[in-house]
Amino acid sequence: MRLLLLTLSIALLSACAAKPPQKGDAQRSARMDACVFESQITGFDALDDTHILLYGFGKKEPFLAEITPGCFDLKNQTALAAADGDGNGQICGYGRDSIVYREFGRTESCRIVTLEKATEERIAAVMEKEKSSRKPRKVIIQ
């Protein structure tokens, strides 16, 4: 009897713990699966303070990197480096890889959260989101 109750309770608990994949999980997973070799990155364009286009093989193969908030003035940077934090030679959307740049004599480092092959639609969506997040400032003149 005890064995039956134990088996039944374990089965019920495991059924409660299992969670079906959410709608956004597949999109997030696709953004974390892409990798580019560190030596293939030839350029960049900062779209805003959290999104950077990294170019592999010239501008033929762009990758969209989302980085952690807190990196400022990326659009005005003339040089960035992609730092391979886990030593595998690749920049990926997981692990300890980051974007590094110099700001006022200090080295700033921003962790890469996601990396995906860039499409025109995805770049347009990021640009639209960035435009809509800007709010006009009110100037009060007395």
Can you describe this structure in just a few lines?
The chain is an alpha+beta fold and 142 residues long. It is built from three helices and eight strands; from the N terminus they run H-H-E-E-E-E-E-E-E-E-H. Helices cover 29% and strands 32% of the residues.
The major sheet is characterized as:
6 strands, antiparallel
Q: What is the CA-CA span between the terminal residues?
A: 83 Å
Q: Tell me the overall shape.
A: globular
Low-confidence stretches: 11-26
Output the helix-strand order.
HHEEEEEEEEH
Relative helix content: 25-40%
Strand content: 25-35%
**Spatial strand arrangement across the major sheet:** 2-3-4-8-7-5
Tell me what the structure shows:
The chain is α+β, with helices and mostly antiparallel strands. It has one domain (26-132). The protein contains 3 helices and 8 strands, in the order ααββββββββα. The chain has helices at 2-17, 23-33, 120-133, and strands at residues 35-37, 41-46, 51-56, 61-67, 81-83, 90-92, 98-103, 106-117. The strands form 2 sheets. It has a 6-stranded antiparallel sheet, covered by helices on one side. Strands 1-6 form a two-stranded antiparallel sheet. It is globular, with a radius of gyration of 21 Å. The N and C termini lie far apart (83 Å). The model is unreliable at 11-26 (pLDDT under 50).
